[in-house]
Amino acid sequence: MMSKRIEPWYIRLQKVAVVLVSALFMFGTAPSYFVLWGSWRILSIFLSVRCYQLGDDFLYSLYQKLLLFFYEHVARIEIILYGDIEEVTKKKENVIFISNHQSTFDWLVADVLAVRQDSIGHIRYILKDVLKWVPLYGFYFCQHNCIYVKRGKKFKLEQAEKQLHKLVKHDIPFWMVLFPEGTRYNPLNQSVIECSQEFAKKHDLPVLQHLLTPRLRGLQLTLRRLRANTDAIYDVTVAFSNTKDLTTKQRLVAPGLVEFLKCNWKLHIHVTRIDIKDVPETDEALGDWLIERYKQKDKMMERFYSDDEAVSETLADARKYCPLRLSQTLPVFLFWCLFNLPLLMTHYGRAFYWQASLFSTIVGWILVVLFAT
């Protein structure tokens, strides 16, 4: 829970230094990543789609493990796991990953779990369409077989189905991540919460207190195209420690990507593994199933934010601490240090770095306009 305390100046300075160095290294490596990925894209022109994708997934895993190095080993996030963790981590499988959504850090939660299954390179996302304009990342996510979606009539169903079919056609491994709520739950944004609750009442659905009402469309689309190649759905519930004010008893805004670099956060993740054969196939039954899953999530969040100290800040009774081995991320960090060094430590390297950044951004936007709008 949240309590007020004044930290010594040197602790605050240390946290600022960690945030600055970590953020600069992670985001500063993005242009380097695009140099590496662009080289592989050119070299793989005459290779099969599956062969290219395996190489792309490997490169993607190198970047994502770099992020986990900073979050898990530098910022020292404490990760507390609940639920079917042993089943999730014992073997690789194709997964549809559904989760509650309250923070920009939610995107990294899939990394946290996938790296423990050795599947981190296979992560794909269902993303808001506006994110395709993010410099560098927006175009790349499209190449990595992520799906951009719009709400309402602007949504291009055929284009999304074509991208999903590509995964099936070429037998490409996947963790397809989607957030059925569609937007983040922010306790300060009461208009969104009230709108969600009104939608639930209008459609005779249960009114959730700690989550937004889930929408079915994204899950419907994903299952329609990927069910035959999917092993399981991972129903993931995420909560963050120190997000309740002890004085007012009010829930606080969840920390984002930058806040998590300030050290010593606790991340709670509950996973329920649901075999794909147990997931309803008809739209009506699937809708009821999704609502029931979110009712269970809401109960877990109610427990987490309870005033009962015996259960508060836990998602279930049984929990597991599963720290990531440094050997899984340190070699990747050292690799990126060696790769970045000649780019940033010489005049010609720096010139190439900035030119590559600008060129990749402009070309990415052009290709987004041509193929993703």
From TrEMBL:
A Pfam family annotated for this UniProt entry: Acyltransferase
Transmembrane regions: 352-372
InterPro entries (alphabetical): Acyltransf_C, Plipid/glycerol_acylTrfase
A GO BP entry: phosphatidylinositol acyl-chain remodeling
Signal peptide span: none
GO molecular function, one term: acyltransferase activity
UniProt keywords, alphabetically: Acyltransferase, Membrane, Transferase, Transmembrane, Transmembrane helix
GO CC entries: endoplasmic reticulum; mitochondrion
CDD domains cross-referenced by the UniProt entry: LPLAT_LCLAT1-like
Domain of life: Eukaryota
Domain Phospholipid/glycerol acyltransferase: 95-212
The keyword tRNA-binding belongs to this UniProt entry's keyword annotation: no
Protein family per UniProt: Belongs to the 1-acyl-sn-glycerol-3-phosphate acyltransferase family.
Stated name of the protein: Phospholipid/glycerol acyltransferase domain-containing protein
Origin species: Ridgeia piscesae
